[in-house]
Request: fold
Amino acid sequence: MDGFENDENVLWDVIQTSEGEEKAEALIQLSYHSSHRGAYQDSLALCETARDIYENLGPVRNEATLAHIYFGIGFSLRQLKRSRDAAFALGRSASIYQSIGSDEALQVRNDEGDMWFEAGDFQRSFEAYRNAIEFPSLESSNQIMAKNFADAGTALEKLQRWEDALGYFENARKIYKSLKMLESIAHCDEEISLCYFKLDLGQKALDHAQRALDFAVTARDDYHLMWSYSRLGLAYKLLENFEESLKFFELAKSIMVHHETPPWAALIKLEKQVASIYEREGRTREAEEILRRIAVIAEIVMEEN
Reply:
């Protein structure tokens, strides 16, 4: 612990006695210490001061270091739950990395997309992921590229652009398959199934939901069991096999409600699907009871969203 404190004392001495790049470097190092302690407001202030110094260095500055500083600003803002501001800082970082041809841009664009997504700006979220995908890179078939494809698909789902989302998930699945990342393939199959459901292609929705379920059962993975069951419920509903649909919705619900933090929004959507089936079967009273029962929860979840 004493060594840690001495490091900080030395760095503060450097700040007091230096200028330019040396001072900026000391500020960056101090920001690491603050971040390590969870003092993200201090870390943010140190990074912003380092940025101001570094930007004034002009043509002699190291652009990769400036990109790294903006990433530090974005990281601190993210920890402070300032998602929109974090997205702008991370976007600046990614742009600098792209201008110097650095593959670091792929990850930072993904982080930027995550922050726009968290801020609820799904169009900008998609554009950040797409920007990473379109960046000419030697890493075009690696894990982070696959993640950019999958995350772009998720943003497009929020925009209800189901056909476009389908294409991105299919591309992500191809890369994950080449990397033999089975869990990520299952995730893509679940979302591909949802896209096909939204596009009224029941058999294709069923095929991909079954693929996801095959993985989940083999791996004894409750998380993917939950989602593959729910996707199977949707597919069977579209195919008007209501008995199978209700069975899989019940299986999905039984896992959801036993989670430490149940996915309430998904659970409400599931219950509405069940109520919709009951209405089609003429079981109006049962449908009304479900909708009455979830009304309060739905109101709270909608307010939180």
